[in-house]
Amino acid sequence: MSEHSGFEEFYAGTRHRLITYLYAMTGDRAEAQDAAQEAYVRAWQRWSTVSTYDNPEAWVRTVAHRLCLNHWRKARNRVAAYLRHGTDPDTGPPSENTVALISALRQLSVAERQAITLHHLMDLSVAEVAAQTGTPVNTIKTRLARGRRALAGFLDEDASEEYSHA
Questions:
Q1: H or E segment at 157?
Q2: Could you write out the three-class secondary structure of 26-81?
Q3: How distant, in Å, are the alpha carbons of 4, 23, 70, 129 from that of 41?
Q4: Are 141 and 126 in contact (CB under 8 A)?
């Protein structure tokens, strides 16, 4: 007999009730679904024990509820930290150049974007970027060259569009 025997039936028979309960508690369907999913993962990992409980559904419901409480606690702490510290009063909106650069970076592949940002924004050497990403130095050099070329093209397109609308 499998250690997960009966879990699928348990899940199918209880998931709707659990999500309904969590949704009513949190008022956020996505949060309810996330907490339920995590609680069922934990139940599945311990199914050989949880399945012997008098009420496995109560165990899953308790775990899911605690996950929601932890989420609320973290959110409350983030708000408290924000209220305590606020934003940097000297920080203004991003410049047009910053917006254009971020937009252009988003168009690069993840590997090129990582190489560009680690090298140019974090001031890591090519060797340090290679070591941090577990990638050969020559591959990093290639990604940097391709990324720079693509960025130049993207940024030139943005500048050309800006002038054509003026």
A1: helix 137-165
A2: HCCHHHHHHHHHHHHHHHHHCHHHHCCCCCHHHHHHHHHHHHHHHHHHHHHHHHHH
A3: 12, 18, 17, 36
A4: yes
Q: What is the pLDDT of residues 12-41, one digit of tens each?
A: 999 999 999 999 888 889 999 999 999 999
Instruction: State the Cα–Cα distance between residues 36 and 22, nearest whole angstrom.
Output: 8
- Tell me the two tokens of residue 52: 């012997």
For residues 118 and 133, the answer to whether their CB atoms sit within 8 Å is yes
What is the pTM for the complete model shown?
0.49
Token duo for residue 55: 């009420």
58 φ, ψ (degrees, to nearest 5)? -65, -40
7-26 vs 56-85: helix axis angle to the nearest 10?
A: 40
